């Protein structure tokens, strides 16, 4: 039985939960130079292992929380161009906003547009109080995007199975009742 999860739209994009049908796209994305450098090698070396990764790493959180990794699709031509997601990441307090795009679709505003929409969903649909975001110290384009999205640099942190210190950003829901 297929469960129905929320998808989102912007003027140019459809943002829907990643599923097995995205395996070819996920395989290509997870093997781009920037993914490997800044996110890390997840040992997705074939479409079959991409399918396994989706089912073992992405879908369980979706089933548990109702959100996880979303595939970002251009409305104009239905092309899969990137991912944006809300992640319950081990070793990181709160929910983490993450994004990655195929090289041909970087620096075109798609990461900002999809992230901005998922931030709104996090606060309005999922009632998340605070979002976190992490990035490598040398990933200047991600740092600039997080600042543009109004995240504040909190400091540095380390996450499970990664020896590198990374930058930690945070964004609070200003409409939260806790204020």
Automatic annotation (TrEMBL):
<protein>
    <submittedName>
        <fullName>GNAT family N-acetyltransferase</fullName>
    </submittedName>
</protein>
<dbReference type="InterPro" id="IPR051531">
    <property type="entry name" value="N-acetyltransferase"/>
</dbReference>
<dbReference type="Pfam" id="PF13302">
    <property type="entry name" value="Acetyltransf_3"/>
</dbReference>
<dbReference type="InterPro" id="IPR000182">
    <property type="entry name" value="GNAT_dom"/>
</dbReference>
<feature type="domain" description="N-acetyltransferase">
    <location>
        <begin position="13"/>
        <end position="174"/>
    </location>
</feature>
<dbReference type="InterPro" id="IPR016181">
    <property type="entry name" value="Acyl_CoA_acyltransferase"/>
</dbReference>
